[in-house]
């Protein structure tokens, strides 16, 4: 793979994560130009959005005009987390996908479990906002501040389990060290109810979000478990609340 085939840009130097579990940055990726960059967002914006659905809905409202359909390059594909992702609370490490979906051409959100959200937060980002359409099939690789669009021709035709296996071998990582979400042949062929799936069996299934990813020629997103820490506003209170929830789950 030549340097011209790898679009790489180191994100800005990150300061300490803001209180409340947020990483404090959004990762923006323009597939058409191959550019990736990070932007801070404010505590006021965090409070207004609360989590991934609110953030993604706001981005769709602000950036995707009504006349832009699901298959238009200017449609946004947002992969987002909530404030608890990456903190010691059960069931909070997944992701939310927000986009204009292929099945209804309307706004949609879909949740999936796994550990993508926690890995993203540990890399210093609260969400990935993807726009444009790649000129050829690529996958997005994130390793802390190193963000790359890599050729994905060798992944075409593989289902999501096979794709994760292939990227695990390619990157030399396995288990919780690498989270991969992507599309299979249905998404590649723009089937209107195609899903985005990853971490061996977790699925964001609503409104054809996999077809949106396929239209953008984005086969997968692979995140190496990052090295950044997170801070809760009330660490002791968080642990107590998490313990209470765990107790209720075990006893109810």
**Order of strands across the biggest sheet?**
1-9-8-13-10-11-12
Could you name the ranges where pLDDT drops below 50 across 5 or more consecutive residues? Answer: 1-17
CATH top level assignment: Alpha Beta
Q: How many separate domains make up the residues?
A: 1
Give the terminus-to-terminus CA distance: 54 Å
- What's the CATH superfamily, by name? Aldehyde ferredoxin oxidoreductase, N-terminal domain
Number of strands: 13
The portion of residues assigned to helices is 25-40%
What's the structural blueprint in terms of helices and strands?
Elements: E1 7-10, E2 25-30, E3 35-40, H1 43-49, H2 52-63, E4 77-80, E5 95-100, E6 107-112, H3 116-122, E7 127-131, E8 138-143, E9 146-151, H4 160-171, E10 178-182, H5 185-188, E11 196-198, E12 202-204, H6 209-215, E13 218-224, H7 235-251
Parallel strand pairs: 2-7, 8-13
Antiparallel strand pairs: 1-9, 2-3, 4-5, 4-7, 5-6, 8-9, 10-11, 10-13, 11-12
């Amino acid at each position: 793979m030549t340097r011209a085939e790898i679009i790489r840009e180191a994100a800005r130097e990150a300061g300490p994560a803001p209180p409340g579990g947020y990483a404090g940055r959004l990762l923006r990726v323009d597939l058409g130009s191959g550019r990736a960059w990070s932007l801070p967002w404010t505590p006021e914006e965090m409070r207004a959005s609360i989590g991934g659905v609110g953030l993604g809905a706001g981005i769709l409202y602000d950036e995707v005009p009504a006349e832009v359909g699901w298959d238009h390059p200017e449609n946004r594909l947002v992969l987002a987390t909530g404030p608890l992702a990456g903190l010691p609370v059960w069931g909070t490490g997944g992701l939310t996908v927000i986009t204009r979906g292929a099945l209804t051409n309307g706004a949609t959100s879909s949740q999936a479990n796994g550990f993508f959200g926690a890995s993203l937060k540990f890399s210093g980002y609260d969400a990935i906002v993807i726009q444009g359409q790649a000129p050829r099939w690529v996958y997005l690789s994130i390793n802390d501040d190193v963000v790359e669009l890599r050729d994905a021709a060798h992944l075409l035709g593989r289902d999501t389990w096979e794709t994760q296996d292939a990227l695990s071998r390619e990157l030399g990582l396995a288990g919780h060290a690498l989270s991969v979400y992507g599309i299979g042949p249905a998404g590649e062929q723009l089937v209107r109810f195609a899903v985005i799936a990853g971490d061996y069996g977790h699925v964001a299934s609503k409104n054809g979000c996999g077809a949106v990813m396929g239209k953008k020629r984005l086969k997968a997103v692979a995140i190496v478990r990052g090295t950044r820490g997170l801070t809760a506003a009330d660490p002791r209170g968080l642990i107590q609340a998490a313990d209470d929830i765990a107790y209720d789950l075990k006893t109810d």
